[in-house]
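ok so for the tutorial part 2 we go from a plain amino acid sequence to predicted structure tokens. step 1 is just haveing the sequence, like this:
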Amino acid sequence: MTTITSLNWGLLEIIYFIIVFISGFLVTLLIIPILIKFMKKKGYVGYDIHKNAKPEVAESGGISILIGISVASGLLILFFPIFINVILIFFLTALLAGMIGFIDDRKKLRSRYKILLTIFTGSIIFLANFFNFINISSPFFPFIGQLRVEIIYPLLIPLIVAVFANSVNMMEGYNGEGSGTCLIALCFIFICGLLWNSAEVILLTLPLIAVLIPFFLYNKYPAKIFPGDVGTLSLGAMIACIALIGSIEVAVFCALLVHIFNSFYVISSVRGFIESSDIQKGRDDIILLPDDKIKASDNKRAVLTLPRLILVDNPLTEKELVNHFFIISIICGLFSLTSVIFMLWTIKNIGIIVVVIFILIFLVPFSILMYKYPKIRSIIILMILLLVLTSLFLIFVDFFIMALIFPDINLIVISVPINIFLSSLLYIPILLLWYWLSIRYFWMKINKVKLNELS
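step 2 — the prediction. this is what the tokens look like for a chain of 455 residues:
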């Protein structure tokens, strides 16, 4: 990670950033109407399944995001040549993920192939780091500092990219849902990058925000264009790049917690990966009502998703449902800021008084949102529970498990410390407990609604 303060950026660099931002924004804004006409002419359309009229909407709109990022990346290389390696890897990762997504949009790849291909996408970053083309260090955690995973962490890079890419992909489904939540997350990641003093975060996040704003304007309710897998997979891969290259993994994880939360529920409830078309074959998580409102399915075979959790009490319109996603994303963004504040306190860049002041400020918008949107309260509590349990577990691992002396597991090409292997096994019961509590909450709500309907 390169610190912003070490670069002595001034007014000229600010002008460069403004030019990059405006260029990415305008190129994307101008290309989308052309792309909509082209896709409709070619018959590359999808049906808006959350409306009874099932209107046709242009697909693969994520191509406009890639075009905008291409222009922005070229300008970044021109204005900031010292970061050419980072920008190239960022762009190539986005391009490869987008190509895989476009193939999936046209051919509908099976889930297992899509997972493998997105893992392959992450190999670009892995190889660039392996050959010192870029430098990715071990993740930094609040209260702990830099984790002692120098050997194993680089090998996890392709998996991390695949997790982020597919989490963003699985969140797409409602008008503006994916693009809006990612836009909110990126705005908070940008602020986190400023606080964490990471030049790479600022460099890569700003153009992505620029191209996502015009796309969201066309993708929001009622949608005129869908991102397709070309958009969602490339977007998730780019955010993974920002997390890894900018050394801000924890903050990005918190900012995208709404996506990871949803994907974990889906994967857990179906015990594996499943295509959206398969979900609709008797396993649909929601029911579309005649008035275009959406309610949660009470079918025990239905997939457990975040929309199903939000809708458990009563139906909402699609626009209302997506607004709840946005509110959850804002709260996740507040979590990401909190993580950076604790990271700064861990390295003693700020004092405890600053931490306390921030927490008091944080509680104001957090309390207002929790009060105004009662449907999200239990979901946010489940998120906080997961973050707290994970933090306590990592502290336990760092102070106790990692301190134990064990021989390494020799896997021929690499030696894996038993401490890390043991830690991974110990985390599984925590996830299972958390998932069991989520299931218990959901069916308690469903049964309560059924009793109210009978009475």
